[in-house]
Amino acid sequence: MSLSDQEFLRYPDLALRSFGGAVVYANDESFAERENLIKPTAPLFDETDFGHKGKVYDGWETRRRRTPGHDWAIVRLGAPGVIHGVVVDTAWFKGNYPPEVSVEAAGFEGYPTVEELNAAEWTTIVPRSPVQGHHANVFTVTDDRRYTHVRLTMHPDGGIARLRVHGEAITDPRLLVAGGLDLVALENGGRVTGCSNEFYSSPTNLIAPGLTRTMGEGWENARRRDDGNDWVEFQLAGCGEVRLLELDTSYFLFNAPGAARVTGCDETVSDPADPDSWFTVLERTELLPDTRHRFVVADPRPATRLRLDVYPDGGLARFRAVGELSAEGRSALWLRWANALPEAQLRAALNAAGLTGDQAEQALASRPFDKADAIPAELTGGAF
Prior knowledge:
There is one protein chain. The protein is mostly beta strands. It is built from six helices and 19 strands. It has three domains: 167 residues, Galactose-binding domain-like (Jelly Rolls, Sandwich); 145 residues, Jelly Rolls; 53 residues, no CATH class. Helix 4 crosses helix 5. The longest helix is centred in the C-terminal third of the chain and has 14 residues.
């Protein structure tokens, strides 16, 4: 499919930082940081703003190259997919933009290291092409394959304000596990029940809604100086089977954990105080900085609690535990909700579900409900 310049701009920018994209490597960022490339905002400029390195630019800028070669940056897409077009925006770079650029793409399994990325084979999606300074340079892409990373190259050096990678996201079906409820999410009823260290920020941030915008919106512990490790323990929204874990180290560039492990416990059948009651949900696994890691759970088991261990220390942005409530967990959640509602709200909910005034009053009089099937079926949709 061939798209015009204006047509491909309708598609979302798959590289956006706000979508989970990250600039995972640049061979040089002497004047301006590589992370600026995927900011969601338009580039800014202040002609009076100088730092100890020189003029401050809202973009990625390398030193003046005195030897043959070129400079490059690698971007991990926040949403892998088919790329329909690229915009290389040199806004405010008027005398220091690169004369030419090229863009390549590649698809990777899992979470490749920088060494693996630089050693990989890449496919050219934008051949070496001239660009203008202080201009949004637009390139249509006709490749129909799904990619996870792009590599932007400047020939030979200079500055680029933004890189936009417009396309269609294609999800990995292996990650579409049955049951789509985040069992640990704060808004679903999950909570933190213990933490080894919260020196810089609260572990409750781990289960907050949405993606983080800064490192300060995650959980960061102090630097550990002993042989132990840091951890957080969570109470799930209800008993359920966790089938997909997400350990997000976004914005933790130099203080992410080296590795992590997740264990679980079902306190309805065993004592959490007994170490033998805990089972492995995710084996100890190495983590990368500034990365949303997703792991399919190999052997889902009912759990009411999870424990996240990080080795030896370091922070995370978010922790997700996606799965499905068990029958017992679903019943307990309904009971807690129905018994906790203010009388006026429960009456309104019963009326909205179709109960008459007398029927609603009769249900209200029977509170607290002792089991889920005592809640009017009209309200629960006949789930019990």
